[in-house]
# Entry
Amino acid sequence: MHLFHWIKRLSVIVMTFTVGIVFVCGNTLPVQAYTFTPDTTIRSQAAILYNRDTGQILYEKNADQQQMPGHLAQIMTAIVVMEECGDLDGTTITANDELYAPLYRYEAVDDLRYADIYNGDTLTVREYLYALMLTSSCEAALILADQFGGTDAFVAKMNETAQEIGCTATTFANPTGLYDARQMTTARDMLTITNYALSLDGFEEIATTTSFSPSSSNLANHSDAAAWSWTHANPMMLETSDYYYNGAMGIKTGNLDKAGRSIITEATKDGNTYLVILMNAPFYDEDGELQFYHLEDAASLLNWAFSSFSYVTLLEDNEETAEAEVMNSDGNSYVLVHPQEDCILLWCNNVDTTAVQKVIHLDENVQAPVKAGDELGSMELKFSGEVIATVPLVAVSDVDRSFMKFNLYALQNFPNSPWFRYGIIAGCVLTGLYIILCIYAAYLAKKNVTPEDPIHLVPHATQFKDRPRQNWKRSDTVFYHGPDSRQTEDTHDQRDEQKEREHEMSGSSRQ
# Structure
């Protein structure tokens, strides 16, 4: 999918899901659509009245109830073709009537729509799209589906696209819109599909054209080329029709014997453009008379819209709505607030605007300084219990900050401030990391110590030989070491020699 097409899809999704409410309302973000009740009975099983200028649904009936779309499904057929074909005018296709086989087997022949496209006719893709949108041509639908992927792959692409643009209850089973029990959608999903189609270049021009004549014709099949012309199936566009509606344009009709009459049309008047979606209107009344309730419903809703709705200012930007408390201010501790901009909504004339409830939400703990224009809250506008708009409230004037009050406030609230908590958490984390690091360092130090060889741990006797004599005191600890063998032998010899000298000396004295 090209980036350009993705951007378009995103814009339509956003527009559809924020359906309407606001025309000019500052930065108002609508929360939920609000609707009114028309003064007429709508016979169609499902209906939506939508203002294209504001994106607002003014009325809905069974908008989320599944219905069979009939030929309205061809809008999705056109979407897939326009996104798959890079050149609508330069791409030509020659009709092959072998593709018409499913039409010959179809039982409810009154459901079939033809544009007199015969075997061998060569038309551009744009011309096939005119045949599809104006006449609900089943031939054109089959030819285009076969050209761009084949029927099965084409239908898969239809369902993929429906999901991508935000449809939630839609399943397509064929590109023609003919009866298939699996092919279902809702009025709300058809609004999403139609809005997306209208965002594609060239679609609205094709879908709202009253009549069209193809320029490339096969003379063998159409001897009078000028007579080969397609007129839009919506009689509300035709001045000669009993159902002509001034300002009505296109977009698509679809009738099925088992699914009633359906129509999607738009109309513009006095600068307002409305889109009407009607599905499954009965063919007959209670007496069995043939009726066109879908056309009557469309005219009734458009008349009601053009006559009953106008833009109403619900809030003015200079309306002082409340006082917001400002903490640590120098002087006045309150500041007035008012809507950021005017809030103008499309409103039903016979509904009193006093029925709109205004609910104010002011920010708490607003701290000085405050500048004029600062957003300090919001106002919800409610109608019938639903929020129809949310308007920002801004300060009217400046409020300066008191230096003394602010510092005292900061000191008192520091233990409750997030920075204090962050500091405690950071301190605990760092302490834990330090302990882990110390344990790891001790582990590494112990791991790297080399144990001493046990032989170096054996004690040795102290040698006292050749050491100067010491005068040992009685209190000193004396270590006695016995003489070695050599010292013992020397001592014995000295003793023997001493004895001999003593003996000789004693003998000499006797004589």
Q: What stands out?
A: The two ends are 150 Å apart (CA to CA). The first helix runs from residue 3 to 17. The CA atoms of residues 283 and 291 lie 5 Å apart.
